[in-house]
Amino acid sequence: MRITDKLAARQTFSFEIFPPKGELPLETAYDIASQMVRDRPDWISVTYSAGGTGNSAHTVPIAAQLERDLGVTALAHLTCLGSTRADVDAYVASLASAGVENVLALRGDRAPGREAKDFEHASDLIAYLRSSGADLCVGAACYPEGHVESPTEEESFRSLYLKQEAGADYLVSQLFFDNEDFYRFREKCLRHRVRLPIVAGIMPFTSVKQIQRMAFTCGASIPAKVVKRLVLAGDDPADQARAGVEYACEQLADLAANGVDGLHVYSMNKPSVAHAAREALVACGYLGA
Questions:
Q1: Which of 39, 81, 227, 274 measures 20 to 30 Å from 202, CA to CA?
Q2: Is residue 289 domain-resident?
Q3: Which of the residues are catalytic?
Q4: Which residues have C-beta within 8 Å of that of residue 110, sequence separation ≥ 6?
């Protein structure tokens, strides 16, 4: 089922998993997906490494297993930096063979040796997918606090508008820790003529090191209330992780109450995190038990 149809029908709830790297067996990802399906997400997104390296070879098999064996809609990521049109064509063909009709079109992170070939921006990829005749529901990323590489807010919204005009069907946000940032972003989208459904992406912090890394790589600001949670949690890693999941669940409940189009949990391959998110939304009445 297309994600746009789900978004049109209700406030959606979804998870993300990332395929295994190195020696981690593919069966581990299947097991994680099988556990997450028990919490009845509207879809599960499967990440993809840019440039055709890393774990990208596992994206389609995992997405296919979600659709075919577990009966849940899969959202396959596709990054284009370092890829050619032929690479994209081959990937799209593999998705079609696997029965996957939803894709999240991304540029991908810049890295040494990974230069643009046929695609400089995600909007270029989206436009190509539309012009190629691929029968796909296409999502795109958005950044409530602005893209980390955008010099100005106006430039960030211009890039977002180009994704819409290129043919994106909906948006999934980068993580954020202050819901007010998302609400302001949602209002600004309308002023900048961006009218696509916006799914709010939430990632629970699990440690001081993780939150510092996310702030540096994603440009997400760390509000004082998050710092206080970490201070109160102390030095124990389990207590830090517990505080992060609790805070994320509070974010999700508030977002649900404020009528966001969808809720997406970056669950870090942890079924327990996905389950806690669902339980929080059941407790406040936004999901059925």
A1: 81
A2: no
A3: 16
A4: 81
